[in-house]
Design brief:
The protein is mainly α. The chain is about 50% helix and about 10% strand. A 3-stranded antiparallel beta sheet has the order 3-4-5. A 3-stranded antiparallel beta sheet has the order 6-7-10. β8 and β9 (about 250-255) form a beta hairpin. α8 runs antiparallel to α9 (about 205-215), α9 (about 205-215) packs antiparallel against α11 (about 270-285) and α14 packs across α15. The chain is elongated. The protein starts with a strand and ends in a 7-residue tail after the last helix.
């Protein structure tokens, strides 16, 4: 059988042909028997594509899909398959993806995205200073899961996100900001200032609650009066209150289950907190209870001045206003009294949870009990705080028992 040739005299292989517009094409059948066509401006380029296609077919890879699937398309398909994720987690991933990935990297074909490119992308996010390490880690979680799905769907061979984060962690770019607890003096100053200040005094019950229970912000804001048992002196943690974008595109409050199974718990109520909550209940009986109803839940303990519920971001904003106001007043007072000012550090709502856990670890030797009260899903989280407490108190502990070491 005579060989087919193009108009330049080159021999064409099986499946190859040249169109009138000058483009070379290679026709083949994909893994399920559908006819596909690859295009190239010249024969050498086409032959290179042919080799990749044949290799993909032999390895069970869908070449057509890998060349036509964008990262945005893959992410949407990946999220559709995440039926086991909580709604709040899915919304968080969607928010991060839309904010950081969708407009640029998301437009790329998945086959063209390489390991080195992702590494450079992560580093650029860190160097820019606009994103913290936790957010970059979330970006990696999203991308790694998306590429993993593409491998299982036989669209790509390897996961370009493999080991990217591990490599960056080895570099000097990756420096976790350690979250330190407030000292005993700092937390007393913070609460006393709120309690005495006429502008910030309405925040006192909420921040006293944080420092007496160690609750996460979403857990504390979701507490209803029905969750507080004054007889048993217990507080039930049963839900989270979040403010996020809904599937409809609108933002609003909604109720979710706690973060993990361990997060659903009962927290003993100390005497001082019981007194504060009883006083707050009596005040609300006179002035009015929270008006908000979220997914059928009502009677929220902590409310804003309009009778609605708080957003977590509002709490952190309040903390910043409070310690800045205190530091300004303390600086001026110290200058007048010719002494060094006692200033409060920058901290967030989660530092208050960390502070409670630190105080608890200082007096409770059983890590399991601390884990239960904190709602940590992993004992390692609790032990890491124990390690920090031990480091700061080891000199004191040795001094207390030094007589036992010497004759």
């Amino acid at each position: 059988m005579a060989s087919r040739k193009d108009d330049k005299g080159y021999v064409l292989w099986k499946g190859e042909s040249k169109r009138k517009d000058g483009y070379y094409i290679y026709q083949y059948k994909d893994l399920v028997g559908r006819r596909r066509v690859a295009y190239a401006k010249d024969l050498p380029t086409l032959r290179k594509k042919e080799k990749e296609i044949i290799k993909d077919l032999n390895d069970g890879i869908d070449t057509y899909a890998s060349e036509n699937t964008t990262l945005n398309m893959a992410f949407e398909r990946c999220m559709m398959g995440k039926a086991n994720l909580k709604e709040s987690t899915c919304q968080f991933y969607q928010y991060i993806y839309d904010l950081i990935i969708r407009k640029e990297l998301g437009q790329r074909k998945v086959k063209s995205i390489k390991y080195s490119e992702l590494k450079a992308f992560y580093l650029s996010l860190l160097v820019s200073g606009k994103l913290n390490i936790c957010t970059v880690s979330s970006v990696h979680t999203i991308l790694h899961a998306t590429f993993k799905m593409l491998i299982r769907d036989e669209i790509i061979r390897v996961n370009p996100a493999d080991d990217v984060l591990a490599e960056i962690k080895k570099s000097g770019r990756w420096k976790m900001n350690e979250r330190h607890a407030l000292t005993v003096d700092q937390q007393r100053i913070f609460l006393q200032y709120i309690h005495d200040d006429p502008i910030f005094s309405h925040w006192y019950p909420l921040f006293a609650f944080f420092l007496s229970t160690g609750c996460r912000a979403a857990e504390a804001l979701a507490i209803c009066w029905s969750d507080i048992d004054f007889t048993k002196k217990e507080i039930q943690i049963r839900r989270n209150l979040l403010y996020r974008k809904r599937p409809s595109g609108e933002y609003g409050f909604y109720i979710t289950t706690p973060k993990t199974k361990k997060s659903k718990r009962e927290i003993p109520m100390i005497d001082k907190l019981e007194q504060i909550l009883r006083e707050e209940y009596e005040r609300q009986k006179q002035d009015g209870f929270c008006k908000a109803v979220v997914d059928g839940k009502k009677g929220f303990v902590f409310m804003n001045r309009n009778g609605g519920v708080f957003r977590s971001e509002t709490i952190n904003s309040a903390i910043r206003r409070i310690y800045r106001a205190y530091n300004k007043e303390e600086t001026l007072k110290a200058m007048e009294e010719h002494r060094e000012p006692i200033l409060l550090p920058h901290f967030s709502c989660h530092h208050l949870r960390h502070t409670f856990c630190t105080r608890y670890c200082e007096v409770e030797p059983n890590a399991r009990i601390v884990q239960e009260v904190m709602g940590h899903s992993n004992i390692i989280t609790t032990m890491n705080i124990y390690a920090e407490v031990t480091e700061s108190t080891k000199h004191e502990s040795l001094e207390r028992c030094q007589n036992n070491f010497m004759i």
